Amino acid sequence: MKQVLVVGLGGDIGTYAFQRAAHERFGWESIVLGPRVTTFGRHSTLARWIVEPDVFIPETLLGRLDEIAAGHPDHELVLFTNLDFHVRLLAEHRDRLDPRWRLPLPDLAMFDAVSSKVAFAEACDAVGIRTPLTIAVGFTPEALAAGAVPPAEALTRLRETGLEYPVIGKPADSADWFEVDFPGKQKIDHFTSEAQIEAVLGHLAERAYPSEFLLQEFVPGDETHMRSLTAYRDSDGAVTLVAGGQVLLEEHTPGTLGIPAAILTHVDDEAFDAAARLLDHAGYYGFANFDYKVSSRTGENVFFEVNPRIGRNNFYVTAAGVNVAEMVARDLLPEAVDGDAPPAPQVPQDQVLYSVVPYRFLLRYVLEPGLRARVKAAKRRHGVHHPLRYRGDASLKRRLWVRALDLRLVQKYRQHYPRPTESGF
């Protein structure tokens, strides 16, 4: 078996978690190609960094990947990213990549079939999965021709549907959202008035935003009603991994709002079956990360979106017993894995606590007695699983840096979300 090089684009905490999993299971080498060394990679020896400020420009990115491939002629090459922009870019230019690159990522047709929240809702409807009531607002002739509502009619349509505030506002396409900028831009908006909606729609109209902006039903329940689900569908069309967990606390800064900061893993057979149906329906390939919520009013699962990538919080899957890098190896580099593949899909059964928030601080936000007891029990059994706390990358300087990141995160919560609320915002 040749040596394996894992190249991650971007350098977020999800990139670190995957490369940690690859190192822990196989000892694979890693490179991160990004515009700068991120906070998650500071003082780390896990991966070598190649800093490229123009990594979002196609020709520059492809050239850098060619350089890496040429510099490692005897390696097997694995390429992945946790950023929608790069998933799309790689899908658009896959035919120009060195054929040695192995990508656990969807092609362009698959990406378009699920990455737009409008297309996702249509696919869910086709396989009987509940999604929130949604109004798609369009800003270009193409979007309007596809059935989106023009900005001038959005509030009228909103009143007609009878949606109550808060109303959720989010982009239909994360890759397009990455490229647009305007004052007050948020990852997700929680609108409490028509004036707030008008302001955002006005900014997008001025910029001729190329895809839809969604006004969406708020599904009742605080953030502990949110769920994360990670799946992998391999190149033979088999769903080989389904894992999930209950969100305990989300991040609350404007740029990261809604990203899980703490998860208690669990098995949700109904949701797992629904996710597999959708991936099979779409003919999907690679990692997929779903967000859904259990309504506090009806108890039903309501699916919001699927991200065509592994997800920022993927370490909860490895922590619960199924190494995410091994899923890729069994699919794309089977000679690296000893023994027969276990029955598919693999579903982690153990209940573990994943958290990037200090444990005692996390408990301030977990108020429901039954859930609090389960969190404490998971902590007693297995401790707290933090993706950045890795014995294989634990110099004194690195340990002190990760502790400083914990303290900085606590300060952000005290600024943006000092106490839990019924709505989660």
UniProtKB/TrEMBL annotation:
<keyword id="KW-0067">ATP-binding</keyword>
<feature type="domain" description="ATP-grasp">
    <location>
        <begin position="121"/>
        <end position="333"/>
    </location>
</feature>
<protein>
    <submittedName>
        <fullName>Carboxylate--amine ligase</fullName>
    </submittedName>
</protein>
<dbReference type="InterPro" id="IPR011761">
    <property type="entry name" value="ATP-grasp"/>
</dbReference>
<keyword id="KW-0436">Ligase</keyword>
<dbReference type="GO" id="GO:0016874">
    <property type="term" value="F:ligase activity"/>
</dbReference>
<dbReference type="InterPro" id="IPR005479">
    <property type="entry name" value="CPAse_ATP-bd"/>
</dbReference>
<dbReference type="Pfam" id="PF02786">
    <property type="entry name" value="CPSase_L_D2"/>
</dbReference>
<keyword id="KW-0547">Nucleotide-binding</keyword>
